[in-house]
Amino acid sequence: MSILLYCKAVSGKSKTAHSMSIYNHRLGQGGYARLEQKLVESKVIDAGTMPSRSLLWYKARENKAGKIEDKAAKAIAAEIMKTVKKITDGQLKLDPGNDAITVVLGKEKCGSLRGVGTGVNPSKIFNVPRQRGSMKQQLDVLQAQLEKEKQEMWKRMKK
Fold first, then answer.
1. Which residue among 54, 90, 101, 106 is buried most deeply as judged by most CB within 10 Å?
2. Rounded to an integer, what distance in angstroms lies between the CA atom of residue 102 and that of residue 97?
3. Are residues 23 and 61 in contact, defined by beta-carbon separation less than 8 angstroms?
4. Could you give the angle at the alpha carbon of 114 between the alpha carbons of 122 and 109, nearest 5°?
5. pLDDT single digits (tens) 34-87
6. Residue at 5 is within a domain
7. Same domain? 140 vs 119
C-alpha cells in the first residue's frame, strides 16, 4: 500500500469519526492539557488543582469571546451548569464515579473521558477503588454480615 493510499484511509476514518461528534470542541492541537494551562494563566483555577470536568467541557466549547455558538452544545452546557448547581446545593446526590457530565451526557466510553481527553480512565479522576475478588466471594461476605446482624437482632429481641 502506498503512503498516499494509507493517508487517505486514515483521513477517511478521521472524517467519519468527526462527523459522529455532536458537541464539537474548539481546542486545537493542545487539547484539554493546553486549556488547563490557559485557565491557570488566566487565574480561573489555581495551579496544581484539578479543574472540574464540567468547567473543562464548557470552556472547550467557547469561542474567543467566551460564548458557545453551537445551539446543541449551548443547550447541553446550560443543562450541565444546572446539574452542577443542584449537586453543590445538595439537591442531587451522586454515586462515586459520577458527576454532572455523566448525569447529562450519560455513561462514559472506555478509553476516553469527556472533558478530559483520551487515555484517561474514570479511576484517575474519581478515585473510585476497583472491586477486588469474585462476585461469589463478595456474596459470601455479604451473607455472613447478614447472618451476624440477624443473630444480634434476635439477641436484642430476647432481652
1. 101
2. 9
3. yes
4. 65
5. 888 888 998 888 888 888 888 888 888 888 888 988 888 899 889 999 999 998
6. no
7. no
